[in-house]
């Protein structure tokens, strides 16, 4: 019995010791907080030295950013034309396609949905050719950037262009002309959703493949302007996807409902 009591006493004593240690640690932490000090186990070195607040940002070398900014002339007319061409293209085809879906104006004008869709496809291709031309002109109007002007960046750009071309061409082959150029808005609906390559790799592979092409072109030309214009291309596609995706899904949802009622 005495052995049992000793054991229980030792256990309870150990528990009280642990509690005392914990409360002591809490009091120490409270004192540290009152004096403006806090020690973290995650990164004591940074906390001890004041963390990022102790970094003297005035000592940072901003010469690279200054040089990059010097190479980019945002108000330059050819740069502005390229930006306008990039933004205008998806805006144009979305407005025209929705107008066609609402009024069937192009279908009546061209005598049928397929001819109308092919006509819009030809116009979109011409606009895209002009967009690519304007981007190339804008890049040539600005100087090359030395950090990008090397073989490694050049071949990385070439690889991006090759990858982007694979996505664009394979998307076109999977969708066809009407599937690529908004045939859904003309009432030319696909029997089922395309799920093969490259659509099993990513959503909207044609848009992102095109973006990769422009980024590759910018890198191959060591052009910071080309990289910036690529960002504008990606942003314009992102906005276009936000409008096109739900609208196209609604078209197929209505088709599905009509089929159920038949």
UniProtKB/TrEMBL annotation:
It is found in: Endoplasmic reticulum membrane; Mitochondrion membrane. Pfam families: PEMT. The keyword Protein biosynthesis does not apply. Residues 77-97 dip into the membrane without crossing it. The keyword S-adenosyl-L-methionine applies. InterPro entries: PEMT/MFAP, Phopholipid_MeTrfase. GO terms for molecular function: phosphatidyl-N-methylethanolamine N-methyltransferase activity; phosphatidylethanolamine N-methyltransferase activity. It catalyses: 1,2-di-(9Z,12Z,15Z-octadecatrienoyl)-sn-glycero-3-phospho-N-methylethanolamine + S-adenosyl-L-methionine = 1,2-di-(9Z,12Z,15Z-octadecatrienoyl)-sn-glycero-3-phospho-N,N-dimethylethanolamine + S-adenosyl-L-homocysteine + H(+); a 1,2-diacyl-sn-glycero-3-phosphoethanolamine + S-adenosyl-L-methionine = a 1,2-diacyl-sn-glycero-3-phospho-N-methylethanolamine + S-adenosyl-L-homocysteine + H(+); 1,2-di-(9Z-octadecenoyl)-sn-glycero-3-phospho-N-methylethanolamine + S-adenosyl-L-methionine = 1,2-di-(9Z-octadecenoyl)-sn-glycero-3-phospho-N,N-dimethylethanolamine + S-adenosyl-L-homocysteine + H(+); 1-hexadecanoyl-2-(4Z,7Z,10Z,13Z,16Z,19Z-docosahexaenoyl)-sn-glycero-3-phosphoethanolamine + S-adenosyl-L-methionine = 1-hexadecanoyl-2-(4Z,7Z,10Z,13Z,16Z,19Z-docosahexaenoyl)-sn-glycero-3-phospho-N-methylethanolamine + S-adenosyl-L-homocysteine + H(+). Gene3D superfamilies: 1.20.120.1630. Its EC number is 2.1.1.17, 2.1.1.71. Residues 1-76, 98-109, 179-221 are lumenal. One of its GO terms (biological process) is methylation. Its main location: endoplasmic reticulum. It is a multi-pass membrane protein. It comes from the Eukaryota. Residues 131-157, 243-262 are cytoplasmic. One of its GO terms (cellular component) is mitochondrial membrane. S-adenosyl-L-methionine binds at residues 162-164, 244-245. Pathway: Lipid metabolism; Phospholipid metabolism; phosphatidylcholine biosynthesis. The chain crosses the membrane at residues 79-99, 111-130, 151-175, 214-237. Keywords: Endoplasmic reticulum, Lipid biosynthesis, Lipid metabolism, Membrane, Methyltransferase, Mitochondrion, Phospholipid biosynthesis, Phospholipid metabolism, S-adenosyl-L-methionine, Transferase, Transmembrane, Transmembrane helix. Belongs to the class VI-like SAM-binding methyltransferase superfamily. PEMT/PEM2 methyltransferase family. Catalyzes the three sequential steps of the methylation pathway for the biosynthesis of phosphatidylcholine, a critical and essential component for membrane structure. PANTHER family: PHOSPHATIDYLETHANOLAMINE N-METHYLTRANSFERASE. This is Phosphatidylethanolamine N-methyltransferase. The lineage of its organism: Eukaryota, Metazoa, Chordata, Craniata, Vertebrata. The gene is PEMT.
């Amino acid at each position: 019995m005495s052995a049992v009591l000793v054991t229980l006493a030792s256990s309870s004593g150990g528990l009280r010791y642990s509690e005392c240690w914990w409360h002591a640690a809490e009091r120490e932490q409270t004192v540290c907080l009152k004096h403006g000090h806090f020690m973290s186990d995650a990164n004591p070195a940074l906390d001890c030295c004041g963390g990022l607040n102790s970094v003297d940002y005035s000592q940072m070398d901003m010469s690279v950013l200054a040089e990059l900014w010097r190479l980019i002339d945002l108000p330059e007319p050819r740069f502005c034309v390229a930006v306008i061409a990039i933004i205008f293209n998806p805006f144009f085809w979305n407005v025209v396609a929705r107008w066609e879906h609402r009024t069937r104006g192009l279908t009546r004008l061209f005598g049928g949905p397929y001819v109308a869709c092919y006509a819009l496809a030809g116009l979109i291709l011409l606009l895209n050719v002009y967009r690519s031309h304007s981007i190339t002109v804008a890049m040539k109007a600005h100087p090359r950037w030395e950090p990008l002007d090397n073989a490694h960046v050049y071949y990385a750009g070439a690889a991006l262009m090759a990858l982007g071309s694979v996505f664009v061409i394979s998307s076109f082959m999977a969708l066809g002309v009407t599937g690529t150029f908004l045939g859904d808005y003309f009432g030319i609906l696909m029997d089922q959703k395309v799920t093969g390559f490259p659509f099993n790799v990513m959503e909207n592979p044609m848009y992102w493949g095109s973006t990769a092409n422009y980024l590759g072109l910018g890198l191959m030309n060591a052009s910071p302007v080309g990289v910036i214009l690529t960002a504008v291309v990606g942003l314009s596609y992102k906005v276009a996807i936000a409008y096109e995706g739900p609208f196209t899904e609604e078209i197929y949802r209505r088709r599905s409902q009509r089929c159920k009622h038949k």
